[in-house]
């Protein structure tokens, strides 16, 4: 609104001007002091901790805009790099619901793979537009779908790391060019994304190229194969238009002068950093990112060494972690995962050892994968795209913030912790996952329309995990529900897909998250918890669910 003071007395006009100037100054100062840095709530234990964006690096650590150390704990949600040009699972789930579940499990970042061809396409597929918020994706290009996923991730307190996973939609190339695309195509795509998301603060950086391998070299100054030089060219081009992003650089497979180890995973060989570090225009934006897998993806010779698994620590130190140990730069393990998490199989032993290593060395990671349709590794989700793989969650919970079970009079919106490469990473045929045998038979209770099946899915000396499956056995939709049970000598340390609140000495009440409130006829909702044993009388009792 424009005000005309032309006919007012002169003194009144002066006062008006002073008032307008004062108000304008206040607004201007407010804008100046609130614009940077942006903040995002990311604490998985709901402790209202703010990460001030953008992120940078100091020595071996990633830090926020106030210098506070940040550990990235994330998942890979793939699909945009395939011929669907959209994250997978949207044929089964609402995309906002999917993001909410990732957040509820305790993760703070999603590594989002894409292909150059996909972002140039006009079409998406593999989405059921009739499911909830997925209707918002109808008629959108792949790039516009990416926009909406990123924007919703920001609303839910999730960071995004973009990953140039493929050039075409079919395979991972050895180099950053090929398959009908040039180096310019690859860099131009990064510049486009860096410009597009310059003001989208939850997009924290660029994983420049997924898993260089084969002819890819490091430190030999061959302009056509030296990945280190290509990473410098692309990284500096990105920082020129978006100086806030982290530049994430993976290793190669081989062809590193003087390398000590004879075997590396695709993208896992960072031995060359010692003598040939990546040189960026902004050195405090560089993060190195190895990929690491177990025998279920490929049975490398070192898994059969007589000193396995003790040989793993030295391999990891030589292959990548010396970079953090020597305070050169931070390490983000961009991919690791596998179907087996037991203590008997090679893959299970390897995965347990790596989780302990990540914890001991305070490394960041993005687990492969969120998707269950990764043929070599499986995912955090099971094949129904909803239920959580409990043994994986139990293992990965060691790396995630503990979840506090809050008294009923306090605000609660819990999360927990958990976890993993589709048929698109380095890879032969996967092993079959071993599912722990429940220590007790599943019990079933029924409260009219809702049936609850309770199963102790994992049980060890000091703790256990419980799965609840709530089935709508009626003919009408349940719009909201609640579950209650008694438990005596146990203390819950994390839970998933619902809020768990203790009421009184032994009673617990479970309420669904917003995306899980509705249960269609014959549909099953999955939730559960892990707990520490405080005595022999630890098993849940008198479990029942009701529609409310």
Question: Would you kindly provide a written description of the structure presented here, covering whatever features stand out?
Answer:
With about 550 residues, the protein is of the alpha/beta class. The chain has two domains: about 40-400, TIM Barrel (Alpha-Beta Barrel); about 445-545, Immunoglobulin-like, CATH 2.60.40.290. It has nine helices and 22 strands. The protein has helices at about 10-35, 95-105, 115-120, 140-155, 185-195, 225-240, 310-325, 345-360, 390-395; strands at about 40, 50-55, 55-60, 60-65, 70, 75, 110-115, 160-165, 205, 245-250, 285-290, 330-335, 365, 445, 450-460, 465-470, 480-485, 490-495, 500-505, 505-510, 525-535, 540-545. An eight-stranded parallel beta sheet has the order 11-10-9-8-7-6-13-12. A five-stranded antiparallel beta sheet has the order 14-15-16-21-18. The radius of gyration is 25 Å and the shape is globular. Residues about 1-35, about 45-50 and about 405-440 have low confidence and may be disordered.
């Amino acid at each position: 609104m424009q005000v005309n003071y032309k006919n007012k007395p002169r003194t009144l006009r002066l006062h008006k001007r002073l008032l307008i100037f004062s108000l304008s100054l206040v607004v201007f100062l407010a804008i100046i002091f609130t614009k940077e840095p942006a903040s995002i709530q990311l604490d998985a234990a709901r402790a209202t901790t703010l990460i001030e964006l953008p992120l940078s690096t100091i020595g071996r650590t990633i830090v926020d805009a106030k210098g506070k150390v940040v550990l990235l704990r994330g998942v890979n949600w793939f699909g945009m790099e395939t011929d669907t040009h959209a994250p997978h699972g949207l044929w089964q789930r609402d995309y906002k619901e999917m993001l909410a579940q990732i957040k509820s499990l305790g993760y703070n970042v999603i590594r989002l793979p894409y292909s150059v061809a996909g972002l140039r396409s006009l079409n998406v597929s593999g989405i059921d537009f009739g499911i909830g918020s997925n209707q918002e994706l109808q008629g959108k290009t792949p790039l516009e779908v990416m926009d909406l996923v990123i924007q919703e991730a920001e609303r839910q307190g999730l960071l995004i790391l973009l990953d140039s996973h493929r050039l075409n939609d079919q395979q991972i190339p050895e180099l950053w060019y090929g398959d009908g695309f040039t180096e310019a195509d690859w860099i131009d795509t990064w510049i486009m994304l860096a410009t597009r998301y310059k003001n989208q603060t939850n997009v924290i950086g660029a994983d420049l190229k997924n898993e260089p391998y084969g002819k890819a070299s490091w430190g030999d100054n061959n302009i056509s194969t030296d990945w280190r030089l290509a990473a410098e060219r692309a990284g500096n081009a990105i920082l020129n238009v978006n100086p806030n992003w982290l530049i994430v650089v993976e290793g190669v497979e081989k062809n590193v002068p003087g390398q000590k180890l004879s075997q590396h995973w695709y993208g896992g060989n960072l031995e060359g950093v010692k003598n040939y570090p990546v040189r960026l225009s902004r050195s405090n934006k560089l993060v190195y990112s190895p990929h690491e897998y177990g025998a279920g993806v490929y049975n490398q010779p070192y898994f059969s060494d007589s000193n396995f698994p003790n040989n793993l620590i030295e391999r990891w130190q030589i292959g990548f972690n010396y970079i953090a140990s020597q305070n050169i730069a931070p390490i983000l393990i961009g991919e690791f995962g596998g179907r087996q998490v037991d203590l008997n199989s090679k893959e299970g032993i390897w995965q347990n050892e790596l989780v302990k290593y990540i914890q001991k060395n305070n490394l960041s990671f993005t687990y492969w994968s969120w998707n269950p349709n990764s043929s070599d590794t499986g995912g955090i989700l099971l094949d129904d795209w909803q239920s959580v793989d409990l043994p994986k969650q139990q293992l990965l919970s060691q790396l995630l913030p503990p979840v506090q079970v809050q008294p009923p009079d306090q605000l609660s919106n819990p999360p927990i912790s958990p976890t993993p490469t589709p048929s698109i990473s380095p890879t032969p045929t996967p092993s079959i996952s071993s599912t722990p045998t429940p220590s007790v038979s599943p019990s079933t209770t029924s409260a009219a329309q809702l049936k609850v099946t309770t199963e102790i899915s994992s049980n060890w000396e000091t703790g256990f995990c419980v799965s609840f499956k709530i089935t709508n056995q009626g003919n009408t939709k349940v719009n909201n529900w609640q579950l209650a049970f008694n438990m005596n000598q146990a203390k819950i340390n994390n839970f998933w897909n619902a809020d768990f609140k203790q009421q009184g000495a032994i009673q617990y009440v479970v309420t669904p998250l917003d995306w899980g409130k509705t249960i269609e006829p014959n549909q099953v909702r999955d939730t559960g918890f892990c707990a520490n044993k405080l005595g022999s009388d630890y098993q849940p009792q008198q479990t029942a669910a009701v529609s409310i």
